[in-house]
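Appendix C reproduces, verbatim, an entry submitted by the partner laboratory led by Prof. M.T., so that reviewers can inspect both the input and the predicted structure.
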Amino acid sequence: MNKISGNFVGLLAGIAAGLMAIAAFNSGLASAPLLFITPLAIYIASMGWGTTAGVIAAIIASAFCYIYGGVGVALSLGLSIFAPAAWIGHLSNLGQTTDDGDTIWYPLSNILFWLMLITCALCIVTFSLVDFNTAETGEQLRAMLKEVAKTNPEIRIPNDEEIALTLQMLTKVMPIITASVLIFTHSINACFGAFITQSSEIMARKPENIAESISIPKAALFILVAGFIGTVFGNGVIAQVCGVLFGASMTVFALLGLADTHLKARSTNGGTLMLIVAYASIFMFSLPLLIFTGIGVMRFFRMASQEANNNQPN
């Protein structure tokens, strides 16, 4: 029986989460990985000491972000990182006792589906609060390129049409990446939080065979299809909302695929190697994909500049 006060644990977890978030924002790229483990302390508090501890941790962490980062940081992290961690921790402890004295816990599949829904909802709210203004962002991008052109005169500043095309791509890609990263972040931290609390016999819920029992309601497939169609053919707010839906649902189905891979690897010769290759490909090719995306954007501007130079009269 855990004798440590849940309120005290929630306070400590909130301080830890808040400090990691602020460090990730203020210490440059070297501390960026801290942002991905920020919700772990809240998951541990919520799963091990109950809903109240998780809520206190989320509030304290958001307060720290408000004090050291301002309203924008507090709202964005509070809605996308801290609140979902407290909520998923709460769901993991929901159970119903049968007449035989056994406990039927809230299904993992429903928890995963709720994670997808709450991530979508809070991402949409966060994007609306941030108010991504393409006109303002276009001016900022143009000003940044002017500064670059001062040291690199050969770089041509894109015209309004080219900048608008780049911003249109960003408005479609950013929601997808944001929702996908959040789903992965929360899933990994939830698994680690459950492992820590269950190994320490703090969490009442016993370990389960995730690879065998995990699934997703049929509604997720509809969200995936609708999100994809809206992202491809929609514009503006519709494209952003559908991008969030598509990114979150796509990642959930990817997690199901990984679970199926785990299940098959257990009964397959060389299964461990198969898992190593699967996870290595995820970590190896996700970062390079972002790097090559940046290189591709720079190539776009460079080729546009060369084309403009070739078209100039001699």
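Confidence is low (pLDDT under 50) at residues 288-304. Additional entries are available on request from the coordinating office.
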